[in-house]
Automatic annotation (TrEMBL), chain A:
InterPro entries: Solute-binding_3/MltF_N. This is Amino acid ABC transporter substrate-binding protein, PAAT family. The lineage of its organism: Bacteria, Pseudomonadati, Pseudomonadota, Alphaproteobacteria, Geminicoccales. Keywords: Signal. It comes from the Bacteria. Pfam families: SBP_bac_3.
Automatic annotation (TrEMBL), chain B:
It holds the Pfam family BPD_transp_1. This is Amino acid ABC transporter membrane protein 2, PAAT family. GO terms for cellular component: ATP-binding cassette (ABC) transporter complex. It is a multi-pass membrane protein.
Automatic annotation (TrEMBL), chain C:
It comes from Arboricoccus pini. Keywords: Cell inner membrane, Cell membrane, Membrane, Transmembrane, Transmembrane helix, Transport. Residues 19-219 form the ABC transmembrane type-1 domain. This is Arginine/ornithine transport system permease protein. It comes from the Bacteria. One of its GO terms (cellular component) is ATP-binding cassette (ABC) transporter complex. Belongs to the binding-protein-dependent transport system permease family. HisMQ subfamily. It is a multi-pass membrane protein.
Amino acid sequence: MKLVVATCAAVLALALNTVSPLQAKEWKTVRVGLEGDYPPFSSVGPDGKIVGWEVDYMNLLCEHMKVKCTPVQQDFDGMIPALQAPKFDAIMASMSITDVRKKQIAFSVSYYNTPTRFVAKKGANIEISPAGLKGKKIGVQRSTIQDNYLTDNYASVAEIVRYGSQDDMFLDLVAGRLDLGLGDSLQISDGFIKTDRGKDFEMIGPNLTDSKWFGDGVGVGLRKQDDDLKKMFDTAIAETLKDGSYQALEKKYFDIDIYGG
Amino acid sequence: MDGGTLQASILQFFDYQVIIDNWQLYLSGVFVTLQLTALSLILGFVLAVPMSIMLTSRKPWVWMPVWLYVYCFRGTPLLIQLFLLYYGAGQFAFIREGFLWPFLREAWFCAIIAMGLNTAAYQAEIFRGAIATTPRGEIEAARAFGMSPFRLYSRIILPSSFRRALPAYVNEVIFSLQSTSLASLVTLIDITGAARIVNSRYYTPYEAFLSAAVLYLVITFVIIWLAGGLERRWNVHLARPTS
Amino acid sequence: MGSLIDLKGYGWSILVEGTALTVEVALASLALSVILGILGAAAKLSGRRVLMGIATFYTTLIRSVPDLVLMLLLFFGGQTLINWAAPKFGYEDYIDIDPFMAGVLVIGFMFGAYMTESFRGALIAIPRGQIEAARAYGMSPLLLFRRITLPQMIRLALPSFGNNWMVLLKTTALVSVIGLDDMVHRAGSAAGATRQPFTFYLVVAVDYLVLTTISVLVLNWLARRYDRGYARRSP
């Protein structure tokens, strides 16, 4: 029995040896959580590497902060727990700054802001109103601002279908399992409609921007205690906007302004 | 810290209001879970009985295909089988335009099919074991009475096998109940799905998932209790043969 | 059919790196579950009410709550609990639960309950006379465990142990849900990017089938090895 107890103690010690003092040192490397299922902001290539605008912008910010950044892939609904784990030190996953999230984590200043819109098959002729959406199946990504918006406004009339990633939602939209989808307009246009699979689809309804649900743009998510890192990101974002490198990178990916003031 | 403050902070830690506000979501989740469990078990049973008889055959062309089916379904995770059916089916235009699509486009239907096919493989194996252990005497007596093979199975072998298979079958029912939680991964809102919605909306993992755990616990106990009653009844029947 | 087996360059990532992670999670969970299983079986057979009560509560709980729910609870809740509890006990350091550890902890904890039942059954089946004889020879408890109990326990527990391992291996697919980059998660990303879910999930299914087939072969070999000296037993 002693042998068992000893082995057990050894394994427990191994399991808990990840106990490490709070990082008080200077930031030399920053691990950044990215989603990888959200083109053109982030997607995973065949070699397992994450590519996209958000990855490039991360590298730009890290150049300004003079730190080494390593991207870490994480599903969206696990971003906040993973940040607190800490599997990584910052979230750059097109995460909007909202009050509910601010209770959990801190945010940098916004680095882009684009409206939310509905997407549906061309000619579907759906009116965006409680009456027009009655009985419709609407796809949305789980635990996003769009999810909250739908739940608060249309849960009683429409059927809300939640997905782990935006790509899974598009798969079902194409397969005909959904009548509509809701998401970031830029992601829908560049990640879906402009691709071969989404060519039969169009965005419908107004731009949705109400800050009650859609927050104040997208920011870098950070742990509350990492105040120094927040200041570094805030400064770096301001610098990239000022020296024109933000705009140069933006042009490589989009034909519109995504910063949204 | 003393016991009082610990208790107070535990009470603070839980936010019961979130669960009270969402009780309807959980209730409909319970219905979906029970529905998925019951329907997939029925489908599994209907498939498993003939398959288990085929498995006890001596002819390779009879038992081999069933053996392969059982091997593949038991050798891969249910999660993958479910994803293959749900997301996989949509990959092919001929399926999307085929006559089955009105069914396959429903996540509910896909979940029942995937779980039914999966539990069929396990149930077939349970029944095969029970059939193989049927006392020789029972079979020989039935043959001596001149029973046809169909009667032999429906009157003697299957009823006696089901009785022996009951404990293992109850286990399979509980496993099936638990595996329905995977339905939340293909958009269905069962108990687990309800918990995931509550968690992602309010960031309250304990309230959300512990409530779900309690619901599953209650359902499991009800199943065990029902099975106990059934077992007693069958034993009474055995103890006092009427014919 | 050509397009069915074209993996668009994702082959290495799923089949090699993803499979490696799956096997790592499975083996680490197995180690934890064996330890918990031995402790659980010892508790259940200890004759002490408190220990038996705890062990029974543990096995009942695990049997009744879905693994997915436990995994989500630990992944989303584990950190909150630690962050909340640690300072109250005068602990200011950081303890992290990353997805790998959450996955291993949950799967190991779950299968510890199943292993408890396997080991308990095996321990009961060891003839009392052998243990008494060993004691009469003056063997220390440790020596008795190593020479008499353990070898027989392995032989007697092997069938249900093997069964548990097969279920455990398949349960690892769930770690993809909490974002661990195993072969299922990689296949999901590839499916989204290429829009060919059937192709990639089929590849993972075959991959699992290969792993379970290898397991069956190894377990059969082990069974033959430990059955030496018991040749009379029907196969």
